[in-house]
Amino acid sequence: HTRMDPLMLLFLLIAGLTVSVQRRESVTIPCFYDDRYKTLVKYWCRGRNVSSCPPIVHSDSPQDGKVSIRDDPHQPVFTVTINNLTVGDSDFYSCGVKILGDVDVGDQVYLSVTDGSPELSVDKQEVTGVEGDSVSIQCRYGNSDSLKLWCKIGGSCASERSVSLDGRPVLIRDDTVNKIVSVTMRGLKRKDTGWYWCDAGGWQIPVHITTLLFKSTILFSSLVQLALYVGLGLLVLLLIIIIITWKVQDKHSEYLLMQTINK
Ligand SMILES: *[C@@H]1O[C@H](CO)[C@@H](O)[C@H](O)[C@H]1NC(C)=O
Ligand SMILES: *[C@@H]1O[C@H](CO)[C@@H](O)[C@H](O)[C@H]1NC(C)=O
C-alpha cells in the first residue's frame, strides 16, 4: 500500500483558525490550497469532517443566501464571506476541495458569533495602501494577558519585540489600556499584498492587504504606452509612404516602357 494519503499532502495552510465575530457582522475567511487543486471545485461546509459535511456553497455556484465563495486560482486561495451572522451560526466549518474518486481535502475553522464584543476584531478585513506608503491595522482584543502576534499566512509571525516580518519592516504596538494592537507596515511593496492575521489569546482574525501601484509608476507606464502608440503610428505612416512611392515608381516605369515600345 504505497498510495500517499491525500490528507498528508500539502493543502490548506490555515489549519485551525478560531475566529470571533459580533452578531449581524460579516466575516471573510481565506482558504489556501495547493497549486494542483487550481481547477477543482472548492466548497465551504458546516462541520469538522470535510468528507461528510454538507456543502453550503461551491465555487461553481458561488452564492447561497448570506454565504458567498470566490476562488482565485492565481494565488491560489478561495475566500468565503458570511454576512449578517447570527449566534446560531457558531460552529466548526470546513474549507474543502472536491477530488473526484478520492477523499476530499480540507481544513477547519471555528466561528464564534457573540452578542457582545468579539474576542479579537479589526475594523476592516480588507486594507489598501499605495506602494511606498504605510498602512496601519488596529486589532482589538479582549484578553490582555496573551501574547499578541501579527502573522503572514504561509510565512512567519512577528510580536511587539519584532522589527520585521519575513524581512519586511513592521512596527507592532500594544496599547494595553485600550486593548488595541497597532500594526504598521512601512514602505509598502507589491509583494506585501496578501493575507495576514492578528493573533491574540487563541483567537485569530484574517486581514488582507492590497498594495496599489505608486502614482508615478502609473504615470510612467502611461507614458511608455503613449510612446508605443506614437511609434506604431509612425511605423504605419512610413509603410504607407513606402507603398505609395513604390506604386508611383511602378506607374512611372510602366510609362517609360510604353514610350520605348511606341518609339
Ligand atoms: C469523515 O467522514 C467520512 C465519510 O463519511 C468517514 O469515512 C470518516 O470516518 C469521517 N472521519 C472522522 C474523523 O470522523
Ligand atoms: C439578518 O438576520 C436576521 C435574523 O435572521 C434578520 O432578521 C435580518 O433581517 C437580517 N438582516 C439583513 C440586513 O439581512
Automatic annotation (TrEMBL):
Top-level division of the source organism's lineage: Eukaryota
SUPFAM superfamilies from the UniProt entry: Immunoglobulin
Localization per Swiss-Prot or TrEMBL: Membrane
Listed GO MF terms: transmembrane signaling receptor activity
Domain Ig-like: 6-112, 118-200
Keywords assigned by UniProt, alphabetized: Membrane, Signal, Transmembrane, Transmembrane helix
Signal sequence segment: 1-20
GO cellular component, one term: plasma membrane
Transmembrane spans: 226-246
UniProt keyword Signal, yes or no: yes
Name the UniProt record assigns to this protein: Ig-like domain-containing protein
Origin species: Paramormyrops kingsleyae
Lineage of source species: Eukaryota, Metazoa, Chordata, Craniata, Vertebrata
